[in-house]
Amino acid sequence: MKRSAIILLSLTWLLALEAAAEEVPSSPAPQQIELTIYPETPTEPAFPYRLLPEQTDGNAVGVYTKALMILGFSRREISEKIDNWLKTPLDEFPRDEAREILTKYREVLEYIDIAARRSQCHWDPPMDKILMMYAPEIQGARFPARLIALRTRLHIAEGNYEEALASLATGYSMAQQIAEQPLIVGGLVGTAIAEIMTIQLETLVTQPGAPSLYWAITAMPEPFIELKRSVYAEAAAFDQVLDEMLPELQPSQRDQLAASELSGLVPKIEPALYELYQLFEPYRQPKLSKEEAFDLLQKAAPQAKKDLLARGHKKDEVESLKPGEAVVWDLFEMYRARRKQLKWLHVSYWQAREALERPEAVAARSSKSGELTSLVDALFPPAEIYCYSQVVRQQRLAVVRCLEAIRLHAALNGGRLPAKLEAIEEVPVPINPATGTAFPYRLDGDVAILQTEGLKPEHQRQYRIRVAD
Amino acid sequence: MAEEHLDKGLNEMAKALASLQWKTSGIDRDRTMYLAGQASARRPQVGFRSSPTRFAWPLATAASILLAVTMGATLLLDDKPQTVERIVYVPASGSHESPVETRPGVSSPEEPTDSLPRSDYLVRRWIALTQGVDALPEIEDSASSPAEGVSPEQIYSRPADFDFNS
Question: Is the ipTM of this complex over 0.85?
Fold first, then answer.
């Protein structure tokens, strides 16, 4: 009996401890990265190495198309294998297997190398159909990017740093060229490709005998990929869709819609909303009927009225609105607020974040109604998502540049790590693009600890840096 | 012949069994029962106030019950949305001729004649923005629909508001 009670109590407490432990991941510890650096000063002239290739005249699009056509399809398994190898420590890296895969795709890589060294990349998509487009060339670019990263890692493992740098240059250039598409997904895929390359760059700069790449990284464009251009291109395309759907809607009404104008517009806007639902929901089965779509909007009316009140509209004005009118007004306000907030793409992330996190800014662009928010999000994503997507990758590159500054300082100071980042006087130390301040750094014995901050917990990293003996 | 041989064997076995003697277990049942009764009636040797262990079990039990009630209440009162009640979506299959359900009281879904062309670009864009480009499905073969590999959960499961910190 006593033994049973002990077992029961132990189990209860174990469950309690497990439940408590499950609460912890809401703020997971930063990812720990152990690095050993080999002090190295930059060679003169300042730019013996470049992370973007020299380019010759010509359009890259045709060459990329050839590469993608040769590449074909059905490569999920190989992609997974490569992803694992890219995370494998260099001393365990399966060189022979990697070489085998690279040989198989040799022709594809040759074409990508050529394309990346072309000075232009005019994708020239049909802008009037931009929201209805399927862009396989963007999605298809992820696999060759993996191949380039694999080739880079193989070169690093073999100590062929010149080849590794040439391969990285192909990858970085490809990232920029894919982002040349005036499509947000193009910008996002380009940004992701650049990050894959930066992870390999991080490995390269920690290898014995690796050249100093401080100035090569410093010479990279900042931000490396501009999402602004594709965001504005898509916003213009969306305006065009609105114009086609609602020819009655004047441009001035799009910017400032008065309550008195709602009753006349709602009967015209409701069918347009239905069209927009269809545009975003190609997978909905069974298809949403018009009655169901209108029903969803009607149900959203109480929340729409709350949103309008929260934004400071007069109570009597809001309460007098018919359900459809309240929803349409709410939608237009969210759309307008999101349009206005795009201006924050032109400033640094930390400045944009401060502005976009203000309660009035959040209230202006949001609705608590899931259906409405989903629709507006899908058609017109909020600016903060773009800002964040960009800064995550910017920060990673800034960290590698910071590592290079530390390595350079150590080379000029008898292999000693700086006591603080301000002690590095030889070159400018990059700031954390997520916070606009220096990266937190401290010395713990013979280990330097560099911390990233200002991002979501899953993107936080802590670097523990040692100087090789 | 075989039966005689069998009978002979059985007889030997019967004799052997008959020669076995009952062996006592060494346990006195009456004494055991007496000692058990005595032990159950025995009081603790130490007094009430000086016994730190007297309330150990009741306290541990009470603590466990309290813990269980707290955990249960946490589950019940948790205001985080656990599930979202929505219309059920199924991924588009290769065939677009799947039968369409009609709900009571709602007219048959009609295909709008004046609708815009269907696109999955907006869906892919939303997945890439909220879950990263790695969440986008691989292109498996040239004949597959662009929709293939995208689950409805990928499209619709998202926080209502993007949070920089979450």
Answer: no
